[in-house]
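Homework help board

Subject: predicted structure for assignment chain

Our instructor gave us this sequence and asked us to write out the predicted structure in token form, then describe one feature. I got the tokens but I'm not sure how to describe them. Can anyone check?
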Amino acid sequence: MKKQIKTHDAFFKNLFAKREEAKHFLEKTIPPEFLKKLDMVSLRLDTTNYVSNELNKFFADVVYDCDYFTNEKKEKIKISLVFEHKSYVENFIHLQLLKYLISIWDLQIKQAKDKKLKMKTFHLRPVILIFFIMVKQIGRKKILKNISNLWTKI
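My token output:
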């Protein structure tokens, strides 16, 4: 079973590390009202290794940076899109995803301090987690329904 899990994981990472594949996926799955705010030309693979507070390296499966239009004036902010794949259901997966967010934000803060940016005016980059999990057919419908409801809140 572990070999099959590694094969699935490697396939996922190789597929979504290709910019055009990630772009195509986003264009076909993200609601149009959100997609039109993404500057897909700016979509760039982030190959950064993130280090947690425990000094353990963590690698999100695939991370992209992208510009996001905040209003009609085309004012942009940077966002990160994290594609994460799981071949099995883990307990407390939300804590792992929270660690991803914290690791990304910790690095942003460190980089801002290194550049001597004013912390009072510094803003953390929003991160959108895109989570894939292989589940039995029975659970898939419920998970997809819950995920699709989240888009209406963005």
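Reply (TA_rk): Your tokens look well-formed. For the description, you could write something like this. Residues 2-137 form one domain. That's the kind of observation they're looking for.
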